[in-house]
Amino acid sequence: MKLYVLCAAPLLATFGLSDHACDSRVDETVIRQMEKIWIQASMHHDLDTLDALLDDSYRGVTPSGAARSKRDVLSTPPAPAGSRQTLRDLEVRVDGDRAVAIGETQFMAPDGQQAVFAFKDDFVRRDGQWRVIRSWMTAR
Question: What pTM was estimated for this model as a whole?
Fold first, then answer.
């Protein structure tokens, strides 16, 4: 099992099973952490963590406009060794059992080339667990 699953599991379990009336700030913190974990899991090709983060109903849109399912994400090849990706300007809004994260991510290839992407991720809490159900990304 990958390190990110080991680090993420206690966080997701602790906050994911909290009461629906819990403080939205706690949920916001969970969603922010999930976004960070998602980036690390993607960069390190941590399929166990990606599987845990994405709902089975997940649908996403890539910067090229291609649709992706959870299966597509899990079959994507790893990022090139030496690549880096960071979150910028992350905003999270929680409304009951739904949440939206909007922000930017900066990708830097090993050769120094950079790309910035705007994204929107939709989350839902099912059976006490937050999961990503939709995402959309576009190049800046």
Answer: 0.81
